[in-house]
């Protein structure tokens, strides 16, 4: 991979999933298939790779496992297939993080791109007015934070090759798809044109424009650029408490912009 995630894990295509090195734990990967996400694509009847992405929730080093669980954290790894879904790049369908019983709040997610190119799409709301909408273009080593209650979807920004990332989230995670599916997808559909990614408004929303840019630094969260977020957890065990207890960091979420 182009960026070392801080422990010995690597994506594999056959079988589609991950390979774990010595001292690393992780489950058998779950496969998300094209039929699972059709309802949220601009063209639900499109052709594309049958296996869209593979996800392994709860990975890490055995020596850290107890501490990760104690803090109610979970580290996930995801690898996306190359190719397109009709005219759209390979992507997830879009969801909101459900309110977690452990904290009584929707929770954020901390993405770190390991290989390939990603676009983290976000919109403030799943209502008819989606609020502010962003497409954050990220490459290996870049970090992107999705705040609580926001709709988000992950896009493979390089259609000709796979893309892989890791993410910190809460252990008792859950996803809400209802609002996104009721609108037939996210507020802006990505599509591949002339080797790049363009965007088209979803007419089911009252859109106000899409902001496209690269990732920023998250100094307010104490995150350092270029250092794996898994390694940053090992250095300071409470660094990602804002993921599991977002209600205690309300001052950071007010006016948050990705």
From TrEMBL:
Its EC number is 5.3.1.9. GO terms for cellular component: cytoplasm. Pathway: Carbohydrate degradation; glycolysis; D-glyceraldehyde 3-phosphate and glycerone phosphate from D-glucose: step 2/4. The keyword Isomerase applies. Residues 49-202 form the Glucose-6-phosphate isomerase prokaryote domain. It comes from the Bacteria. Keywords: Gluconeogenesis, Glycolysis, Isomerase. One of its GO terms (biological process) is gluconeogenesis. It catalyses: alpha-D-glucose 6-phosphate = beta-D-fructose 6-phosphate. Transmembrane segments: none annotated. GO terms for molecular function: glucose-6-phosphate isomerase activity. Belongs to the archaeal-type GPI family. This is glucose-6-phosphate isomerase. It comes from Enterocloster lavalensis. The lineage of its organism: Bacteria, Bacillati, Bacillota, Clostridia, Lachnospirales.
